[in-house]
Design a protein that fits this description.
With about 180 residues, the protein is mostly helical. Helices cover about 55% and strands about 0% of the residues. The relative contact order is 0.09. The model has no long low-confidence stretch (mean pLDDT about 80).
Length: about 180
Amino acid sequence: GSHPSANEALMKLEKDGVSLEAAGSSIWSLPRAALRDRKFVRAVEVRKSLVSETATLEKSKERFLGMSGLIDSVSAASKSRADKLLKLAALRLRSLAREELVEYRKNLNRMHIIEGEVIHRLAVDESLKGKRDDLAKFEKPKDTLTFPYTSDEVWFDELGNYQAQVKNCPMLKGASL
């Protein structure tokens, strides 16, 4: 639903406009994409202008004595529209928060998969103690073109051509994840 600090941030944004400075310290209670969301920003800005226009209309009510009924009906309609916009902004915040939580769940699931992979690799490493083969020797064929290596720059398309002899990485033939 709603949270008091999110409601406080919403009121600050309504008062001072939609910006990081207006939200201040309560920005952390809003979803990450709230200030970039067009629907949310539009609802808050239109509500802000409606509330200020309604207040101006109420102040000028005394000047127009014969129009007080019309001014009251316009003021009531503006207040009703402003309340609807506040509900719309709160619903949009809730929707953005829900989307953010879905993204967090996806990332956590990925992290669980990575954790399982690490645990599996550690278990494979423990099970291969003493069973490692000697390092294989590889030689360059005679028809291979070799360029001199002069810098620390590695190009992405060259990564598939690198070979290494590594002592501490176990490799079990036929093992797969």
